[in-house]
Amino acid sequence: MEQTEDLSPGSLVRRWRLGKRLRKTRIEAGKTMAEAAAYIGVRRPTISRIETGRQAILAKNVKYLCQLYGVGAPEVDMLMRQAEESNERGWWASYSDTMPDWFETYVGFEADAKEIWLYCAELVPGILQTTDYQRSLKEGKGLEVDEKGLAFRLERQQRLETRKPRLRIVLNEAVFRRRIGDVGEQSALLAEVSKRRNVTLQVLTFDSGPHNAMAGPFNMLTLPGELAPNFVYLEHMDGAVYLERPVDLAKYSKVFELLTKQALSTAETRDFLATLG
Fold first, then answer.
1. Is beta strand 115-120 parallel, antiparallel or unpaired with respect to 166-172?
2. What is the mean pLDDT of the chain?
3. Helices (DSSP H) in 113-216: which residue ranges?
């Protein structure tokens, strides 16, 4: 069955597909990233970001790269058109002043992802936080509560609820034991969300012992038209890292599957949430 997101992907997914095509063409042409960068007058890391979809590219630079790679006219026109389309602003752009650049990129990919896997060790994921939880989290850190930032979180949640990508979420029990905001309200929301057909929510309890994700939380996204996760997204204090190597995707996919086996079942998770209210 055809899916809407496959037919009209958002700007970042189009950018990612264009970058993937340019990388394949460069490799087939026997050119290095350094050669490509020198040809269009940018630094090598810029080519890397373009090929992984995390930086826009001007249509004229696509044309120059195609010249370097020996690409024929019909395909050049198509790739230039894709470059123009990939630079369109997404719905989240109006909130760009409320979040760092590295997170804005993630939101762009999340907005089109057909499947999202989350392992959260300390916090309820932003897409499932109540407004009270968000306020309490900011205040607890000594940060000013940004009303526009709260509006962004709400719209982000609503859009995901409307699109209904498949969500697989494992929450460490520590998420619930650290008191942030109205625990009953947050637990009730999670219990309600866990009943949705597109959501699998599980709790990894303390008494389950050691587990394979003790190094920290991670997100995995599968983009439209893909059969397996495309990115592992890891946040740190001042930024984020995307892992795309097959070996990394395989490793984190295995870790996530092991977590789902060790965590409470979905029914047991709802029972657990009921005890928190």
1. parallel
2. 92
3. 131-140, 147-163, 174-177, 183-193
